[in-house]
Amino acid sequence: MMATCQETSPQRPVDLLRFATAGSVDDGKSTLIGRLLYDAKAIFADQLAAVEATSRSRGDDYTNLALLTDGLRAEREQGITIDVAYRYFATPQRKFIVADTPGHVQYTRNMVTGASTADLALILLDARKGVLEQSRRHAFLCSLLRVPHMVLCVNKMDLVDYSQEVFDRVVGDFSAFVAELDVPSLVMIPISALHGDNLVDQSGNMPWYEGPTLLHHLEHVAVASDHNLVDVRFPVQCVIRPQSTSASDYRGYAGQIASGILKAGDEVMVLPSGFTTTIKRIEAGGSEVPEAYPPMSVTIHLTDEIDVGRGDMICRPDGAPIVAHNIEAMICWMDEYRPLKVGARYAIKHTTRSVRAVASDLRYCLNVNTLHRDASAIQLSLNEIGRVRLRTAAPLLADEYRCNRTTGGFIVIDEGTNRTVGAGMIIGLS
What we know:
Strand content: 25-35%
Radius of gyration: 23 Å
CATH architecture of the largest domain: 3-Layer(aba) Sandwich
Helix content: 10-25%
Structural class: alpha+beta
Distance between the termini: 10 Å
């Protein structure tokens, strides 16, 4: 059975934007997010007071808004970002979840974690330094993770006298690099995170820039069409059975819509059994809804009593995912103790299904700085990315990652320690 891959989909309302920051060390990612939160009036008075007190204790002569996201004690002491810091804020136009990811090369795995669910990647560059190796690395990773939208923020424009010439030079260098990548949407904005230029309000220091401010772009970037609303994928998370003797007794199947649109009366197929039936009704939050689309969490009631359990997939008969034992995937290795080696056995967590797998081949290790493929590599170490072939003990119901980020992605688990040791993006199935 072959899966389809739709490039366009019908529109559905989306009032939430997930975005991740990325860039080199000291480019100002945490300061940018702190300034956005401050200017958008998304922080409490006691939070601001705590940041002001910490800034004074550090000897800063200004309120260091980067401390709003550097939540770990070690981060505050060193002035760097180590872990992925998630922050939530809202404006009248949209709600936001922002992942402030580390800039250091040894925390590449953290950056992959933060960007894996993002609708938009916000890449920061220091206007004085231009495009650095780490900036290219993060742009490539965002492309590999197929983040639909990218924003280049050329920061610290105040330190180059708000020069249009400097901005144009940095933009030219970055554009030349991303021309080799798959970046569907790219917007470039000159900013000063420290002073708030072009973040919320248009900067009077750069009259030559006529584009949107960062917040305006974040509020209005269209992400509804980024979801695949054609190929129905509903991984069953659990079976709802009230165990009641009344007439209201039923069997429902709960989970999150990965892609596609489901309505009552639709004909569907359950995999891996292959049985077909129709949808009787759909519930969300205890109430019946006319339709379900990603990323809604719903309970689906089927017309016929068929065997459906956790890990099964509900889809359309004419647009099913691929049922495969052999997987080709790009894997980012996250284990600092044991590298990935050919012949090693792991557990694969894919949607709501878990299977055992063996790494049958390592095709190459990819240098994310030069994009060079090292076919002589015999293992993947911490933060390395490579093309790996896996053989699973039970079939996966999957799509290629380019078609569906949910059913095309998986995590690798060490069965002995139960640690997550890798994240994979499927590029081939058989």
